[in-house]
Amino acid sequence: MRLGRIIRAILVAGLVFCASPAAPQEPLLLLPAADRARGEALFVEAYEKVLQGKVRDAMKDLDEALKWDPYLVEYYLLKGYCGYLLGDYEGATKMLRHYLEVRPKDAFALGFLEQVENRMSMLEKVLSQGVDLYVSAGLTEHFQGSMGIPVFSVGRLRMPGRPSRIGDLLALCDNKREKAWLFGPSGEKGKRDLIYSGPAGGPVVRVLPVEKERVFFVYSDGSILMAYVSEKGVSERARVETGAESVSDAVYTAGDGLVLADRIKGEILFVDAETLRTRDRWYPETDGFEPVALAAFGPFLAVADRRNGVVRVLDLKTRRELESIALSGPVRAVEWMNSANLLALVEGGILYHLRPATGKPPETVAGMFPEAWFLFSSGHGVTVADTALYRSADVTGHADEGALVLVDPKPVDSDGAGRLELYARVIKPLGAERREEILFQGVLGGRPTEIRAELLPEETSNRTIDTLPLVPVEKPLWELEDLSGLSDVYVLDAAKAPEDISWLSRLGCFALSHGLTVNILAEKAIPSTMQVRLAELTGGNLFLSLSNARSFGTPVKWRLSVQVSDQVILPGEGGGGGLFIMGRSGSMTVVDRFPVWSVFSRPAQVQPAEGETAPEEEKVP
After folding, report:
1. Domain range spanning residue 78?
2. pTM of the complete model
3. Is the predicted pLDDT of residue 217 greater than 50, yes or no?
4. For 494, left (φ over 0), alpha (ψ -120 to 50), or beta?
């Protein structure tokens, strides 16, 4: 039963303070025993509050505990952990270094400091440079089958326009037959249901399904139709002439905008999607500008200039050209993988990987089939399709970065085997890609321990993007008094969120500490680069419509069961005082640490006598 007593003690998720064996040699013995007991009791209460999510209350108790016992070295370790939970990585680092000045060989504290610094570095790198990806092309497939389109629902296309996927809706069109098809999500995974099949109202170049109530038909003659689409047909809401002569491509952008490429006039048109009025026109100073394809992602617009053989990157807010990237031949198509990675297809079927703003040269991904013509975001990467939408291949990206977060530890003592159960959240860029082969290893109290892992199913069946909590702006998450009710998924509204770098960095640190995924809603405003990259880092998605978004990013969740040994190592002893878990999946490695103090019995909680106050705070030498 000794093991059961130990587990129950570790249980408050295992954490109760105990002075190190070196205590008899320390000056704290010079303190009155009652003062030490009060400081120790307050420390225990502080840790229990941390486990309950009441981190701010815990920090107050810690400050009070230090007044009673100014030699309470563990104060700095737990205070650093509290700062980490509140997303204050700078404050956490400062406290951990104070602790290591006294106990420089504490393995847990050394590892935890390194972890905090690594996550801070990862956040700074992603916000400034974006998430770098390893890009690879898959095998050639039948286009309609790979898209989950019902058999015989489309038939043979004579002159297809570029496919378009926005949220859960997929649209196809045929310029020659003047016909369009709209598909929505099906109850069967990987399949789509046909919503509309019928006339497009003219020589359509692209159909942009923002939502079923608002679908844009863009025609080669420069006109735009905004309509409501259902199984019964197309109900026209508005139609305008933009003045363009020959539209080659069109995209729907963040901030409720449309962008059209006029190949003959050599200019880009920016249209207000609400009023269908042309806001602005743009063209470069270079002669022979021939825009044949467009791609928009967050605040960026990419333009394929076929005649000059370059890809131009523009800022959607300022309409200013940021960069021009030369390729080996006439450019056919472009599409974004994320805010830092762009694909370009040139004549002959060569696919390039571009990294704008980095100065890196284009990299060849693969030589696709010669008829490869279209690039478009398909929800599972970028799809390359031929001129007849008959053959296709998926291009996917992988990032090694990620974060593991341990939450909600609970002790279990069954069949005489002591175990500590907790949950692990894994967040990573391109979070929609679920990696089910993660191998977990752990160390508890300085000794390797057995870990059993169970992948939990996705909890998206009963949740839609409009039911998810918004990231509060006026009272940020890190100012909440109780963190126990945090959701694992949030939505950040670009129209309301501040663009302040320090605010976004703090939100990123907070998300990394708790395993939260942040999705960006860009329905009413063009998000900043940092807002988009914050979502990318945490595995979130970018949504252009609130009503047409169910495939939101979520953390991958695991239930872990950790074997607890009856040999207890105390804080300050070698690798004692904490739980370390590492997860490996291919080239990705994620780690997290959880502070655990353990004793055989809980110290009595001593409260100050009536009228007695804590002594004045003293400096720790």
Report:
1. 1-131+400-601
2. 0.87
3. yes
4. alpha
